[in-house]
From TrEMBL:
It is found in: Nucleus, Nucleolus. Keywords: Developmental protein, Nucleus, Phosphoprotein. Its main location: nucleus. It comes from Motacilla alba (White wagtail). Residues 1-13, 293-304 have a biased composition (Basic and acidic residues). This is U3 small nucleolar RNA-associated protein 25 homolog. One of its GO terms (molecular function) is rRNA binding. Interacts with CAPN3; the interaction is required for CAPN3 translocation to the nucleolus.
Length: 712
């Protein structure tokens, strides 16, 4: 693995952050350290080496590099508690601070490598279509989805309609996807029907994809699928049907263990098909312009955007980028004899690959954790890819790239912040397909980076970048690119922030398709310990009021019940880092006997906190969701659980509850579990208790709902 993870985790060690109350989803910025926290962290670290059971576990666990400090530069800044009043004033500078601290040569900002020597070979302006690789005649067919989508000429009144009128929606039940919601503003909106069978030849795939796809995708096909369809799994068939129609897509059931790779293959096929068709059109028109008679001028060859990049793929880790590029290469190689030329391949494998020997041995983690954090998990990267006929160019300069693969942090540091001298987002002006994969992980990294990207995509460029305006499509010149952009959003869960991006930042004129299945049982069914679950409802008038309402409800109604010494060994699970800081500051102010662990806590401090909690020397343990996401340690000694808010990931609920069985002492009947929720937590609540119980709980005005589960 690269050194980036080491550096970022070192930068983010200190825990002392400013308390955030009103600007809940904004990030903090300053670089001072609280003396109180510093002395606390610098306690005799030899304590962590004592022969304690929990620390022995930590010695093996703590050495793993999971990038817990890689959530984004703005998250890392240390703020003393006495400065909490200045948080609002500092917000305007936070973005700049975050970006500047990222400008490390190893992160590729100052000394970023780009391939210069292959510029002419991959230039769209100076190359022409090779007859044998051409698929131009096929691309002229009226039924070709690419041509249909890109050649559609919208009218001013249609644009105005999309900007002002609400979307109309309809729903359909698909065999594999389940409940599918279609929404669109424009009339003449036709609901897609799931294809039971797909003939590859009818998909209008560009050469050589028609022949390579069945071979590349063979690994996912079972004997059951083959009689029906020799090239797609049932899931891929339905997803690709939507992708190939150029509608926006939100699929919130991506699972790294089960369907993650088959989804990745499907969207890689679509992205590559789009790029090959777009480039073939340009090269074909180059030949026509070359062969035309002098003096004849035509406006028929408008075939490109204001900048070259067409596809932007946002993925969380370098390993994901590595897999995508490998899929591209496999799809372009017709057979073993016809290998394509890939420039800088060795360098790419070195920077994006990983050494299997680096992984510490004997680490026991859940299977889903191993699947998500496989390979190189550095989260600061970006790479341009150019594809021309039978060759691929890695590390292409962005303005010479067809596809850009990047992490949110990697793209964020290029876009920069307002007022910075060195920033660039012109290359995002003509993106035609935006793919955001594993969106749920960005909630654990830094969601602000995703929002920052969405604000800067498909804007008119500030510079012409040498474009031939006679070749630029009118849709781009009219600044209508965002109405033609297709967005593909894949996530492991439904979340209000992810939903918001899909609903507010996707403007595709064809419309949107979202998969909306409701959970029937919920993760509470996977709790294997005898445990009473008390769900306590808090009232709030708005989503923003919930933040303060939850805190007040906790300190007034819940915490007093746990102050008694008999309620020791209480773990408080806090999903939001800002809520964690607020609670930690309150606990310190009230001089409560507590310890705390977050994603920025040093290894030695984590050891001490776990030991104090296990022995009962500390009554409370404040515990953040992001620490659990990046480490997945088993916390021993829990007798009482408080979920300050429902977990982002539903399966974390049962995981945390099942930690109680790790404690040898104690009687089941003395264990408690209390959960705080409001009417705005409907999605998270349904994922934990199921849709039927959720409906009952939200209709009822009672504050306490008791459920007891046992071994299943």
């Amino acid at each position: 693995q690269s050194e980036d993870s080491d550096k970022s985790s070192k930068e983010s060690d200190s825990e002392t952050e400013v308390e955030q109350v009103s600007g809940y989803h904004k990030l903090l910025a300053t670089l001072k350290t609280s003396p109180e926290s510093e002395s606390e962290e610098e306690e005799d670290e030899s304590e962590s080496e004592e022969a304690e059971e929990s620390e022995a576990e930590m010695d093996s666990e703590g050495s793993q590099k999971t990038g817990e400090g890689e959530e984004g530069e703005e998250d890392r800044n240390d703020v003393p508690e006495e400065e909490e009043d200045t948080a609002e004033q500092m917000l305007s500078q936070e973005q700049a601070d975050g970006t500047d601290t990222s400008c490390d040569p190893r992160h590729g900002v100052i000394e970023e490598f780009t391939d210069v020597k292959h510029e002419s070979e991959f230039s769209l302006e100076t190359n022409f279509m090779e007859e044998e690789s051409g698929d131009c005649n096929a691309d002229r067919r009226d039924s070709n989805p690419f041509k249909q989508h890109m050649d559609k000429e919208l009218e001013e009144k249609e644009i105005e309609k999309m900007s002002t009128l609400p979307k109309t929606s309809s729903q359909s039940q698909w065999p594999r996807l389940g409940q599918v919601i279609f929404s669109s503003t424009l009339e003449k909106h036709k609901t897609l029907k799931a294809d039971k069978e797909v003939d590859v030849k009818q998909l209008h795939l560009h050469k050589p994809l028609e022949s390579t796809w069945p071979k590349v995708n063979k690994q996912f096909l079972s004997a059951v699928d083959k009689p029906i369809d020799s090239s797609f799994t049932p899931l891929q068939r339905e997803l690709f049907c939507i992708m190939n129609s150029y509608r926006d897509l939100f699929y919130p059931e991506r699972n790294a263990l089960t369907n993650g790779e088959e989804i990745r293959h499907a969207y890689c096929l679509h992205a590559l098909n789009h790029v090959l068709k777009a480039n073939a059109q340009v090269l074909s028109n180059n030949a026509k312009r070359r062969d035309r008679k002098p003096g004849t001028d035509t406006d028929d060859h408008r075939d490109q955007g204001l900048t070259r990049p067409k596809v932007l793929m946002i993925v969380p880790f370098r390993e994901c980028a590595l897999r995508i590029v490998h899929i591209f290469i496999s799809l372009l190689e017709v057979n073993d004899k016809k290998k394509i030329d890939v420039s800088n391949k060795k360098r790419f494998k070195g920077e994006f690959g990983s050494d299997p020997e680096e992984k510490p041995p004997n680490l026991k983690r859940p299977e889903d954790y191993e699947a998500v954090f496989a390979g190189n998990i550095d989260d600061h990267f970006r790479i341009g890819v150019a594809i021309l006929q039978k060759s691929m160019r890695l590390y292409a300069p962005f303005y010479s790239s067809d596809i850009i693969i990047a992490s949110p942090l990697g793209i964020r540091t290029v876009i920069g912040a307002e007022g910075e001298k060195k920033r660039d987002f012109d290359f995002l002006s003509s993106i035609e397909i935006l793919i955001i994969d594993q969106a749920d992980i960005y909630l654990m990294q830094n969601w602000e980076h995703v929002l920052h990207l969405m604000k800067h995509i498909n804007l008119l460029p500030l510079d012409s970048h040498g474009v031939d305006f006679s070749r630029v499509r009118m849709l781009n010149l009219n600044n209508w690119s965002k109405y033609y952009r297709q967005t593909l959003l894949f996530s492991a869960l439904q979340d209000p922030q992810i939903n918001s991006v899909f609903n507010k930042h996707c403007f595709n004129y064809i419309g949107q398709v979202a998969v909306r299945n409701v959970p029937l049982t919920g993760s509470i069914s996977h709790v294997v310990v005898q445990l009473p679950h008390v769900f306590r409802r808090l009232e709030a008038d708005s989503v923003t009021a919930v933040i303060d309402g939850r805190f007040q409800f906790f300190i007034d109604k819940v915490l007093p019940e746990y102050r008694d010494a008999i309620m020791s060994h209480t773990l408080i699970y806090v999903p939001s880092y800002f809520d964690y800081v607020r609670l930690r500051n309150y606990f310190k102010k009230e001089d409560l006997n507590f310890t705390h662990i977050c994603e920025y806590t040093k290894k030695a401090a984590v050891c001490r906190a776990r030991r104090f909690f296990l022995k009962g020397e500390k009554q409370f343990l404040l515990f953040t969701e992001r620490f659990h996401f990046y480490k997945r340690y088993t916390i021993k000694g829990i007798r009482n659980l408080i979920f300050y808010e429902l977990p982002t990931y539903p399966h974390f609920y049962s995981e945390i509850c099942n930690m109680l069985k790790a404690t040898d002492s104690g009687v089941d009947a003395t264990w408690t579990c209390t959960v705080l929720y409001s009417k705005y937590d409907a999605q998270k609540l349904a994922a934990v208790v199921g849709i039927d119980r959720t409906a009952q709980m939200l209709q009822s005005k009672k504050n306490v709902h008791l459920f007891v589960t046992g071994e299943n």
